[in-house]
Design goal:
By secondary structure, the protein is mostly helical. The chain contains 14 helices and four strands. A hairpin with a 5-residue loop joins β3 and β4. α3 packs antiparallel against α4, α5 runs antiparallel to α6 and α9 runs antiparallel to α10. The longest helix is centred in the first third of the chain and has 17 residues. The N terminus and C terminus are likely disordered.
Length: 280
């Protein structure tokens, strides 16, 4: 058997050992001289794989052996981004303590903190990840590509428990964002305005071949009410139309009546180019 075939087989078996959670096998391969920074065909490093598969003992071994913390796969993910994406708090803690960049994002501009805002998990792992990142110094309103804040991410996914937690830690519910992140000149709007526009609109998902599958209309009125109850203002859009006018345009008369009783401006709010992604 040629040396290239032997090397290829060893490479494959090393990645398989991570999948199998076989720390002894991993040590054997690395002690034999295999590189700790090698990647697979998709650019996934050993540390990224261990992070994605939630293998903290293996992560600790790889970090101790000098595995690069900031390697990226072809989708721009680092091991820390993977930990946030998988709500893997133990792995995230290891990476933070090792000095990994907490501000790293994937190619879409999503940070580990933003990923932790996507799902409400019964085991509390997502919240544990968010706590770790804020304790490490990440601002609660940290803006990623296009300016999306964690609170906007949580509200876009309807994750109200996480949104509540973010507000408790100082998140700005009246931040302005960009409704269409495909149009850099698109209209700026708040999370509340975004939800009003999306109320009772059809969601969508991707099929097995990448095709767009239209879903059933979703009523997000409970999210709209939640945002109002937690300090949203009746702010104007760029064309001067108030949020209350927008609500009436979309048939939300009761919401409009509530908004008409609220202030229409606040000196501390600045319109900054924060892009809101539409996700259902």
């Amino acid at each position: 058997m040629s040396s290239k075939v032997v090397a290829f087989n060893s490479h494959r078996k090393l990645f398989e050992a991570i999948d199998m959670n076989s720390l002894d096998e991993i040590r054997k391969f690395l002690d034999a001289g295999m590189r700790v920074d090698q990647t697979d065909d998709e650019g996934l490093s050993l540390l990224m794989l261990a992070s994605r598969e939630r293998k903290p003992e293996i992560m600790a071994e790889l970090i101790a052996r000098g595995a690069p913390l900031e390697q990226r796969n072809h989708e721009g993910n680092t091991a820390l981004v993977w930990a946030g994406m998988e709500s893997h708090s133990e792995g995230l803690k290891l990476l933070i303590e090792a000095g990994a960049n907490i501000y790293a994002t994937d190619e879409c501009g999503t940070s580990a903190l933003h990923w932790s805002c996507v799902d409400e998990l019964p085991d509390g792992e997502a919240l544990a990840c968010a706590k770790l990142l804020l304790e490490a110094g990440m601002p609660v309103d940290y803006q990623v590509k296009g300016g999306l804040t964690p609170l906007m991410e949580a509200l876009s996914y309807g994750n109200l428990p996480m949104a509540e937690w973010l507000l408790h830690h100082g998140a700005n519910i009246n931040a302005f964002g960009q409704y269409d992140d495909m149009d850099p000149d698109g209209e700026l709007m708040t999370a509340l305005q975004n939800e009003i526009i999306l109320n009772n609109t059809a969601g969508f998902s991707l099929g097995p071949n990448g095709e767009i599958i239209e879903g059933e209309p979703e009523d997000s009125s409970h999210i709209i009410q939640w945002i109002i109850n937690h300090g949203a203002l009746n702010l104007p859009m760029e064309d001067g139309q108030l949020t209350s006018d927008l609500a009436r345009d979309h048939g939300l008369d009761e919401i409009a009546e509530q908004l008409e009783k609220l202030p229409t401006s606040v000196a501390s709010i600045k319109k900054e180019p924060v892009r809101l992604r539409i996700v259902r």
